[in-house]
């Protein structure tokens, strides 16, 4: 199947927003999505964007049942390792179910790595849910290492009230 | 003990570099550190910095045995949640052993959260090694959630040859 990987533009945010919800449904946490396409437009297409995004597009004659031609996306940002330096984090990689098995996900992933390589990034990281075997196998097959299994790294998060508490405890500047 | 939390400047990179190594030794992975203070200067103090950093400084009369007055640091960067939006990731939080127990780590953490709050961040994330009980307890006591335990998130990494392979497989632009 023909498809094209390209950098997302502001006008793609509605499509990206739709697919973010589709991915959350797959991850069994649709109620977690609190973000609008307006926020994506604001945060991804400003002076110092919080993220970058690639989209996969198919020709009109391959469009989805619902008539979509933007059928996948990879949303990532730049991070930093104090051991190795410039790195990338892949927040989301998604291909609509009816378009899977055509190498679109693999192409999105490789393109993200290529963009990072051009910026001097030496790592590409992401996270997966332990029950999500197809996804874990997808990355493992490409040589990715599971650092939670191999080194014992755990994800920690502050949000909501416990984050507010931290903010309120911050020392006041003289 | 008196101490001050302030934004790091370029001139602090040698001290930050020294403490990055001290932290890696504590984490039992000193051989993993491949970064120089010149790289920190380049990547943290450029147009679109890859990270931001706070340092903890004590007065001259409290200086460390080796004569250091910069005794802790918190290195973080901005990330993005496609569910919640603007977020922060705390890459490193470190206080020199002889200065622990004075609230310096807590102040660094709170100050990072305050800076994020001013930027509209709704999450502060980080990762810890599962054997590092003191650190896990430190964050848990402040209400942080362990997402690896509660939701089953695993860290995945591409680097070295497997990352190069991805880059080389990227579809070529027409």
Automatic annotation (TrEMBL), chains A, B:
CDD domains (UniProt xref): NAT_SF
| Single GO MF annotation | N-acetyltransferase activity
Q: Which Pfam families match?
A: Acetyltransf_1
User: Superkingdom of the source?
Assistant: Eukaryota
Tell whether Transferase is among the UniProt keywords.
yes
- SUPFAM superfamilies per UniProt: Acyl-CoA N-acyltransferases (Nat) (SSF55729)
Keyword Acyltransferase tagged: yes
- What are the alphabetically sorted keywords of the record? Acyltransferase, Transferase
Instruction: Please list the residue ranges annotated as the N-acetyltransferase domain.
Output: 3-164
Question: What processes in GO biological process is this protein linked to?
Answer: polyamine metabolic process
Family under the similarity heading: Belongs to the acetyltransferase family.
| The protein's name | Diamine acetyltransferase 2b isoform X1
Native organism is Betta splendens (Siamese fighting fish)
| Phylogenetic lineage | Eukaryota, Metazoa, Chordata, Craniata, Vertebrata
């Amino acid at each position: 199947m023909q498809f094209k990987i390209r950098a997302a533009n502001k006008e793609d945010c509605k499509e990206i927003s739709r697919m973010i919800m589709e991915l959350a449904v797959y991850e069994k946490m649709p109620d977690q999505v609190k973000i609008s396409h307006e926020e994506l437009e604001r945060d991804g297409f400003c002076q110092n964007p919080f993220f970058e995004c690639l989209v996969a597009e198919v020709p009109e004659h391959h469009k989805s049942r619902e008539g979509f031609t933007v059928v996948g996306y990879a949303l990532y940002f730049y991070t930093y390792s104090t051991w190795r330096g410039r790195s990338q984090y892949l927040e989301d990689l998604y291909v609509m179910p009816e378009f899977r098995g055509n190498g679109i996900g693999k192409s999105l992933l490789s393109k993200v790595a290529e963009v990072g390589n051009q910026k001097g990034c030496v790592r590409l990281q992401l996270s997966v849910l332990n029950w999500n075997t197809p996804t874990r196998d997808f990355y493992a097959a490409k040589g990715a290492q599971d650092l939670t299994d191999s080194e014992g790294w755990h994800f920690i998060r502050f949000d909501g009230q416990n984050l507010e508490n931290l903010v309120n405890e911050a020392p006041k500047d003289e």
